């Protein structure tokens, strides 16, 4: 209820004021009230105009966002399809299709893929990086590629996928540049996510697992080269070398990248507690087929279970072949991976390698070898790699060639690790251009200028033959792989003939006499008496009447 006394006083005051005042003041009073009213109206008008402007701005924003979300958007169609294939509980964000390389059109990409026989299995559209300038890598990272004119096919196809934070399976021939295909994106990942903090890491964010110490050392060196300009360092962990020295290096350097063989890595983590892998968010499984062939499947599983990032971890797997064991590994540990394969999924040799197979008797191999060296190593300066099968055989060949005046050295399992490293370094810098090796050098020996590979003794498997031949014709160059084949090797004749034919190489007539039958590949544990079983197949219930 209003106060009636105050109302009465107000009305009385207004009457007295009206009786004592003249007409002029009345007019001024009405004029002042009108001005006040006009000011109020103007404020209301300004307020309405501001509100209208805000509403218009909101509508414009909404309209622009709706235009980006329309079903006709080219970026959303692949993402919509991909979401159907992503595994349950997959919380990793799916990037839009790569559009970084504006210079590469879909037509150019298709032509590039067809030319190099590249297949990219993905529902996203990834355009290749055909030039280094099209990559997102900084100039500091690209210094590692200064000796190359352009990316290799596997790099061109894989870099857009890996830099889009997708899991990748890379299948390519030996000598195709696979190391830089994952090493440069790993450095780029560290630079983007950690910046200057990547120079010292209590827990490494990047882990690269390799099957052999030679391959691990080679990868480590390339990671150092790529990360040098950004202060990003790497530590290599492998057996046959002092654990104490490696532990000391881990404590001193606090590296962002660990390159390791499975056995030594587990030893340092489980037994010495010298390393914590819980922060690894970028994992590389290099030469996965080789690791599985060597019986490292259990070790790989144990290592991956130590990594704490789960579905947020990016996993990159590279392999020269795509057998069932590698497919099972990828299915277990990779999240909706993009598969990039060059050529056939079956094992293949670089087309730039000229394969020459010579059927010889076992007693004449020494003479044949010296005859070939007079032809291939006439200057005594060019690099030639001779493969033997056994350690004692490699030592014997080394001694024989030294007696004939050749400047040579050897690497095999009976030599200490420092001796092996010294031999590889001497071979790399050319001070000792003739190297005799067992299959410890069949993978991981990345020396671009090896002109000739001589297989003195045929290896135990056709896979090892492929990787031996892959030591030449690297970095876009050509090379020759000359192989001695004896009657003792006849069980490999069918696979070798198929290999030669697929590469359009000459098949000797006296090789055909051993037959073209391909023996079933034996299991590493169960020999030929095993049956491959699909792990996804449902068990059949048997009912007895």
Automatic annotation (TrEMBL):
**Could you tell me the EC number(s) of this protein?**
3.6.4.13
Composition-biased stretches (Basic and acidic residues): 48-66
Q: Where is the DEAD-box RNA helicase Q domain?
A: 130-156
Q: Give its localization.
A: Nucleus, Nucleolus
Domain of life, per UniProt, equals Eukaryota
Transmembrane region(s) = none
- The first-level EC class reads hydrolase
Which residue stretches does the UniProt record annotate as biased composition, category Basic residues?
28-47
Q: What does this protein do?
A: ATP-dependent RNA helicase required for 60S ribosomal subunit synthesis. Involved in efficient pre-rRNA processing, predominantly at site A3, which is necessary for the normal formation of 25S and 5.8S rRNAs.
This chain belongs to which protein, by name? Answer: RNA helicase
Annotated organism of origin: Coemansia spiralis
- Its gene is DBP3
